[in-house]
Design brief:
Blueprint: E1 4-6, H1 8-18, H2 31-41, E2 44-45, H3 55-63, H4 69-78, E3 82-86, E4 90-94, H5 102-114, H6 116-122, H7 126-140, H8 161-171, E5 175-181, E6 184-189, H9 190-193, H10 196-200, H11 205-220, H12 225-232, H13 237-249, E7 253-259, E8 265-271, H14 274-280, E9 288-290, H15 301-308, E10 329-334, E11 337-347, E12 352-360, H16 368-385, E13 389-391, H17 393-400
Parallel strand pairs: 1-7, 12-13
Antiparallel strand pairs: 2-4, 3-4, 5-6, 7-8, 9-10, 10-11, 11-12
Length: 402
């Protein structure tokens, strides 16, 4: 049986639709809508960099301009609808997925116990520190690392023994993140943070692997085993390959060939109803939008380049003189194309959003209509970040060649 061929335009539209970057957004946006959005995405990455806006807020704002920051705090802190843990990075994840992280906790425990760096950082009395941290959490309730005297300075993450113990217990699932204070973790015993029904659930390892692969492909629409494994970071590539082989036999998924932006074709897998999904996928809005550098749509740089012809890298950790573009560069999405990028900084005390540089992709011209659209996107972003004064004139002139 020949593979279904999916042209590049359909692949881009489907990909953006599955990443919730198509269709419109309701103006009456509530916390329940935010929860539905996180569930559809699978998770939202947390990041502390606040040059423009923290990643978790901007990821949601890019899809729902009426999103409010307090929604995420309420869902995590007050309603226990989200929990914080690792996917590919620290993330907020729908609470009903928590049982599938149990196998990750067990694996983390084994890695920690075998890794001398954890033991060294815990100090010569590591077991005693763990016991003392447990006792204080049980007795005093939620605590931050700064509530302990041995905060640590420099060295590996700048962690002292108690902070190391808190992180060990969190990664092993004994402790959970109750909330964030500023951006600092507030730790508590998992039994006081995670609802009992989710804490007591015990899916088998096979059930978790099946769920992780199925849920990843459902959110990606089209994926290779490597991309399926990378989505949650809960299964290995070998696990994902084994799952796709079995799912193919069960006719739950199909093999497809996906056309890249350069015309090359790549084999992938898709849910069995992929043709209906393609037909139902909305067209992305034509107007310009700026995405977070940590947006899930561009997290896999190779995939973004393959599907969209967009070569994007984060240069935060690149020395300034070696940067090609800038410190905090936002991808510019128009319709189903990435048409450029901008180095942006929010000066909150001045109420000013500065565009340090704007670079359009080859073949993309800064027409008057596009410039108006980019200014509109910047104004929308400026309102969200509390920096309504847009300082973009110099960058736009340079982009025009002036």
């Amino acid at each position: 049986m020949s593979r279904l061929k999916i042209g590049n335009r359909d692949a881009r539209r489907l990909f953006l639709d599955h990443h919730v970057l198509t269709g419109g957004s309701t103006s009456a946006y509530q916390a329940a809508d935010t929860l539905a959005l996180v569930r559809r995405l699978g998770f939202v990455q947390l990041d502390s960099v606040n040059t423009v806006e923290r990643a978790h807020h901007m990821i949601l704002f890019s899809r729902a301009p009426s999103y409010r920051r307090e929604h995420l705090a309420a869902l995590h802190h007050d309603e226990a609808s989200l929990f914080e843990h690792w996917t590919h990075d620290a993330s907020l994840i729908p609470m009903e997925f928590y049982p599938h992280w149990r196998h990750r906790f067990r694996a983390a425990k084994a890695r920690i116990e075998a890794n001398p760096r954890w033991q060294e950082r815990s100090g010569p009395e590591g077991e005693k520190v763990l016991r003392d941290v447990r006792k204080r959490l049980r007795r005093e309730g939620a605590l931050m690392a700064r509530d302990f005297e041995d905060k640590g300075a420099g060295g590996w993450w700048g962690w002292g023994p108690s902070k190391t113990a808190l992180e060990m217990l969190w990664r092993m699932g004994e402790v959970a993140i109750a909330r964030r204070d500023g951006f600092e973790k507030v730790y508590d015993l998992a039994e006081r943070v995670i609802p009992e029904e989710h804490r007591r659930a015990r899916p088998s390892e096979a059930a978790t692997k099946d769920w992780a692969c199925r849920a990843a492909l459902d959110r990606l629409g089209l994926a290779t085993p490597q991309e399926i494994a990378a989505f949650w970071h809960l299964v290995s590539i070998a696990d994902a390959k084994d799952w796709t082989a079995k799912a193919l036999k069960r006719k739950e998924i199909v093999e497809v060939s996906v056309e890249g932006a350069d015309g090359a074709w790549k084999a992938a897998f898709a849910p069995a109803g992929i043709e209906a999904r393609i037909a139902a996928a909305d067209e992305p809005p034509a107007e310009a939008r700026f995405l977070s550098p940590f947006d899930p749509a561009i997290r896999d740089r190779k995939r973004a380049e393959r599907l969209f012809g967009f070569d994007y890298r984060i240069e935060i950790f690149v020395p300034e003189k070696k940067r090609r573009y800038g410190y905090y560069v936002l991808p510019l999405l128009e319709g189903d194309r990435f048409t450029g990028r901008a180095d942006v900084k929010a000066h909150r005390s001045e109420g000013r959003l500065e565009v340090k540089g704007l670079w359009l992709e080859p073949g993309v011209k800064l027409t008057k209509a596009r410039e108006r659209d980019i200014r509109s996107a910047l104004e929308t972003l400026g309102r969200f970040t509390g920096t309504p004064e847009i300082d973009a004139g110099a960058a736009l002139r340079r982009a025009r060649g002036g």
